[in-house]
Specification:
By secondary structure, this protein is mainly alpha-helical. It is globular and about 45 Å long. The longest helix is centred in the last third of the chain and has 17 residues. The protein is built from six helices and two strands, in the order ααβααβαα. A two-stranded parallel sheet has the order 1-2. It has one domain.
């Protein structure tokens, strides 16, 4: 049962190819026509999903689920899922804010 749940979760991830992060931000975040939710799945999150149905549901309800870390990359490769770029909140959120705030933020 755990491997099925993990596969479903990994299959739900939005795969951003290397060097396409700015395109993801511009296309899916800044030009969204409705409110979106973004979450990051790391290895600890994968472990929680297997044991807790409500955690699984929370991740599955996100608009965009992004890969965070080498552990999830390895899990993707095990299940034959292309892992794409490593996107984590620490790096991605400041990039989104820089684009949203633009020149005002950089003064």
């Amino acid at each position: 049962m755990g491997s099925k749940i993990l596969y479903e979760l990994l299959s739900k991830m939005h795969i951003v190819e290397d060097n396409q992060t700015d395109n993801f931000i511009d296309t899916y975040v800044l030009k969204a026509s409705r409110a979106i939710s973004i979450g990051f799945i790391n290895q600890h999150g994968c472990n929680l999903v297997v044991d807790e149905q409500r955690v699984y549901r929370s991740f599955m309800d996100l608009t965009f689920l992004l890969r965070d870390g080498i552990g999830v990359k390895m899990a993707c490769l095990k299940y034959g899922i292309k892992p794409g770029d490593n996107l984590n909140g620490t790096d991605l959120i400041p990039r989104i804010l820089d684009k949203v705030l633009g020149d005002e933020h950089n003064k």
